[in-house]
Amino acid sequence: MTTAMSRRGLLQGAVGVAAASGLAGCALGGGGTTEGVKGETSADNPLGVKADAALEVVIFNGGFGEDYAKAHQAMYRQRYPKAQIKHSATQQIAETLQPRFVAGDPPDVVNNSGGSQIDFNGLVAQGALTDLGELLDAPSLDDPAKKVRDALLPGIVDVGSYDGKFLSLNYAYSAYGIWYSRKLFESRGWEYPRTWTDMIALCRTIKAAGIAPWTYPGKHSRYLSWPILASAAKLGGLEVILAIDNLEPNAWKHPAVVAAAEAYYQLAVDGFLQPGAEGMDHVQSQTEWCRGNAAFLSCGSWLENEQKAVTPAGFRMAVAPTPALSNADKLPYETFRGTGSEPFIVPAQGKNTRGGLEYLRVMLSQAGAADFTRRVSSLTCVQGAGAGIPLGPGLTSVTELIDASKGGAFTWLYSSYYRKLERERVDGASAELFAKRINATQWCDKVQKSADEFAKDPAIKKYQRS
Amino acid sequence: MRRIFLLTFLVPPLLLYGLFVVSPYAQAFQISATNWSGLSPTFEFVGLDNFRRLLGDGWFWNALRHNGLLLLFLPVVTILLGLFFASMITVHGVRGAAVYRVVYFFPQVLSVAIIGVLWKEMYAPHTGMINGLLRSVGLDDLAVAWLGDPRFAFWCVLTVLIWMNVGFYVVLFSAAMQAIPRELYEAAALDGADRVTTLVRITVPLLWVTIQVAWVYLAIIAIDGFAIVQIITDGGPSSSSDVVGLRLYKTAFGDGQFGYASAIGVAMFFLTLTVAAMFLQVTRRDRVEL
């Protein structure tokens, strides 16, 4: 066989071709700046939306689905009939949208949520987000005399603010606490304990009755770090939480945090945690709880919706604040961790940022929020939007919790400033704690060490709150 | 003429290969020298900073240690099991050999994601099959939370990796064994060789090239391991089953540090290359001609 060209020559040619084509597609992107289209402002259109500008909305297709967003889009189209709306929903927010941020072509509204949410630290550090402050100061859709800011539940502006700029609107409202079944407790004559001493006493009774007092998702042990931090804040005051959020030295070794960690570690020491829970994920442990195999569970108010399929009839789940650790707690028993979830952002490079802001204003109207609550059984960050809507027993107890606290809800922000600190480090340390491989003091040391690592890491942008 | 004919067939695939395989590789090297966050077109060149950081990153070394353990155990155990099953099926022809051959191949048909979810449920503390079996024979004390304990989680993942890979090598080795002339085995049997001697003295030497290839493939799987680990344990508990691939993924998509993640990728690239070259070098033997 004769060949006109040598193999070596062919290979060299191939490498050349490959190298040339390599230049064609570059991941680092070129990008360009896009000016948001701005129309005339008027009383009816305070944000200056251009009536015929197209709007693109990307929704996280998780527990809430995407139908609620389509309803919001219909409301937007009612106001701007000439606007084309492009809707899409995905579970892979980061994977889908990351290249579009690089290319300078992001959508106008993104529901940046779920397991593969785009890291806020990166988005904020890169200046990729529109300041939503203008939206806060715009008149609300329902009452021109009232600003959007004043229609929100307390804490919503805090949780979406980075260095004083309001960049992410957390649309759903989640209350965190300890969950139990009213049916179980009434049938046994148990009462939810208001102090930790009573909690331990009740756990003894529950265990004697052949039920595991507590269960928890060992694979996401951070769920049990929530009552620790909430109790610590109630015991030592909000400055405990502020120090943690600001990555201050020894914030996690504050006596209140140690005391709270000791208290919850006691559950593991006394055998009050369901055996085997250390190997369960949240679905498995919550199902155990719904089946009546455990009495208490730490979770947020999405629990009722998440467990809809497996909750037995008449179970009547209810949420309660964390029990007081002492008689001299700085915050009253009724205070709880309440905060926004389901973050919505308006990318700065979007083609229609004005429309994006207006879309959020539509979502924050009474009609928009009430529709959301009706569809997905979750409260929103809009005050009073849940009034008159029939809610499930769990969500009803959440509204009772909010009312009883008289505005005393608080939250920490380190988990949104430094997502990995909670998702990996606190999570890992808590898994060790509740499997009794480390004790409460070691837990505080371990988490503090991780927090110090974050404080020292120049690649991570730092935020301050006060 | 001939040249044009060749080129028309070769250039399109080479272009595609260059665009989708070579170019991302090349770009990873470039990105690893930047602090690119993956969210904007802006970045700075930081030289070798990312690699310096890698050297002092305890989480990376922890993940690498697990890859090291995988590299140590996965190829050896898988190949030994593969050889054992293949020789039982092919050489000694145990009863039902045809059925076994199909059964062993089952895991190969399932997608990695399905295998991961399946085993995650198998290991579940209360509802899982493994603890169910243990309890049914009275071994309640052994029914622990497999994936919730840092002592066991990694080994649980290793078991799954072996389980899902062994079938392919059984088939590969069986095929190679069928090429070995029966006379050799008959001669060995006449000389009074037992099964083990036959395996070690005849089968393995004649299969050496296949084993070598298997070794390199398995080593590459061991250095990766990402998919199964991510689905079954997500590196936990307390990073006790973390692997480098997962660290890379979390650094890029979780922390938005594509520059540093690319540096991890580049380190992995050289690691894989070195290991493959080393294996081929160490296991080099003269081929037995039949």
3D architecture notes:
The complex is a heterodimer of chains A (466) and B (290). Chain A is of the alpha/beta class and 466 residues long. Chain A contains 19 helices and eleven strands. In chain A, the strands form two sheets. In chain A, strands 1, 2, 3, 6, 7, 8, 9, 10 and 11 form a nine-stranded mixed β-sheet that branches. Chain A has a two-stranded antiparallel sheet with strand order 4-5. Chain A is globular and about 70 Å long. The termini of chain A are far apart. The relative contact order of chain B is 0.14. The interface between A and B is large, with 60 and 54 residues. Chain A: This is Carbohydrate ABC transporter, N-acetylglucosamine/diacetylchitobiose-binding protein. Chain A: Belongs to the bacterial solute-binding protein 1 family. Chain A: Keywords: Signal, Transport.
